[in-house]
């Protein structure tokens, strides 16, 4: 499949689903009353998809990889915040595991895409 728009990137699609899950948790759980943590989690989840979109228009693979790395870091940040959410009983163990696993899958997809782009960058650099 050819990627013509950032919406075609599987990592972005997964990040969008993840973001929806975080918003749903914030709306339907005690997390919604903890403005600070809710805001951090919503921002982290949005940052994952937004950095993919922003990096897509960066012009070079090297620039795109940098933004993908930011997205990957935001996944780890969200996972840490999920522990805080669980520890404060803002979510159930099942909710935690579902969103945590979604985040891990998203981070792994982004990491695989970074590896793909890095290899492509290496080949292109080696032939120039």
Automatic annotation (TrEMBL):
InterPro entries associated with the record: 23S_rRNA-intervening_sequence (IPR012657), 23S_rRNA_IVS_sf (IPR036583)
Superkingdom of the source species: Bacteria
Pfam families (UniProt xref): 23S_rRNA_IVP (PF05635)
Segments passing through the bilayer: none
CDD domains: 23S_rRNA_IVP_like (cd16377)
Database matches in Gene3D superfamilies: 23S rRNA-intervening sequence
Name of the featured protein: Four helix bundle protein
Organism: Prosthecobacter fluviatilis
